[in-house]
UniProtKB/TrEMBL annotation:
InterPro entries: Innexin. It comes from the Eukaryota. This is Innexin. The chain crosses the membrane at residues 12-32, 98-125. It is found in: Cell junction, Gap junction; Cell membrane. It is a multi-pass membrane protein. One of its GO terms (biological process) is monoatomic ion transmembrane transport. Structural component of the gap junctions. GO terms for cellular component: gap junction; plasma membrane. The keyword Metal-binding does not apply.
Length: 171
């Protein structure tokens, strides 16, 4: 009646993979926040100051903008490694976007390693049905177990709920 399926090696690693993915996609953000101030032009300060512009008079706004632009222009001619400070924010932004693309490729390879075929990682969008019907992460499956009853081994096949897969589904 049911097809016997071998144990999947990736089930116990799913929570760790999800944690690794979350942490790895946060790393480029941390790098951006750590290094964008090296250009002399503080992006976060400019954005927060622009929100307060409506509350100040035009003279105060002009003085603040002139002061920040003068300070940034004094800092821009000193190179950081091989990139001038005037190009550093753009270079850092493009580097972070490249890091995100490389992380996506890394995670696809990680899927291929654990699941066994790249069709799940890439072809899931081309799948005719829903991904829940693919059989890779079932929430309900059939379980076999044996019970000794009156010195006789009795086999039972029942429908089992996989709570770890249900948790991963909601994540």
């Amino acid at each position: 009646m049911f097809t016997r399926i071998i144990f999947k090696k990736y089930f116990q690693w799913v929570p760790f993979i999800l944690i690794l993915q979350a942490c790895s996609f946060y790393i480029p953000h941390l790098i951006w926040r750590s290094f964008n101030w090296l250009s002399g032009f503080q992006v976060k300060a400019v954005v927060s100051a622009s929100k307060e512009v409506e509350q100040q008079t035009n003279d105060e706004v002009t003085k603040i903008i002139a002061k920040s632009l003068f300070h940034a222009s004094q800092q821009q001619h000193q190179p950081i490694c091989f990139v001038h400070k005037q190009h550093f924010v753009g270079f850092l932004f493009l580097t972070m976007k490249l890091a995100y693309v490389l992380l996506i490729c890394f995670h696809l390879c990680l899927f291929k390693f654990f699941i066994g075929n790249i069709d799940f990682a890439i072809g899931i969008l081309d799948h005719k049905g829903e991904w829940r019907q693919s059989g890779h992460f079932p929430r309900v499956t059939v379980c076999d177990f044996n019970v000794y009853k009156y010195a006789q081994l009795t086999n039972f096949t029942v429908e089992c709920v996989l709570p770890l897969n249900m948790a991963c589904y909601f994540i």
